[in-house]
Design brief:
2 strands; two-stranded antiparallel sheet; mainly alpha; globular; about 55% helix; about 5% strand; about 150 residues
Length: about 150
């Protein structure tokens, strides 16, 4: 299910800023509005390339809800291109990855240190993950909701 429309620059930004969320926060804070919008779109496109969220994912015999499936896919993207490519290529199943997401089994990938969650701007607390920080930075900088902007596009 690999998507060819996830740009290389997106993966390069994640790789260059990981594991320090404050570095990603700073990078996003220095970019023009369009780059933040493109970053958010690329993140969502990469997550949607993994599975149709509405179908859920089977984990231990249970089918996860659409929201839980989306959370898992967003987490996969945040782990970087390496894990994402393994899943999109079918070399690693989402059920197996979900066990790592839940902390039940380790997932050992090169350079896969977990994001530290620290942010420098107190207004960004509560958005302390690579997939959500862009929404808070956007709101702080442009006094608009990125999610609304993306829906209008």
């Amino acid at each position: 299910m690999e998507s060819n429309h996830v740009p290389d620059w997106f993966w390069e930004v994640l790789e260059a800023t990981r594991p320090r969320l404050s570095v990603l926060e700073s990078w996003l804070g220095s970019q023009p509005r369009e780059v933040l919008e493109d970053f958010a779109r690329a993140y969502l496109d990469a997550a949607e390339a993994l599975v149709d969220f509405s179908e859920g994912v089977s984990v231990g015999g249970d089918i996860w809800s659409e929201d839980s499936t989306e959370d898992l896919c967003m987490w996969v993207v945040g782990q970087g291109r390496g894990l994402w490519q393994l899943v999109t290529a079918g070399e690693l199943g989402l059920e197996e990855v979900a066990q790592a997401y839940l902390g039940r089994t380790p997932l050992l990938l090169d350079g896969a240190a977990p994001w530290d969650g620290a942010v420098t701007d107190p207004e960004h607390r509560g958005y302390q993950s690579p997939e959500t920080i862009v929404y808070s930075v956007y709101r702080t900088r442009f006094t608009e909701e990125l999610s609304e902007r993306l829906l209008d596009a």
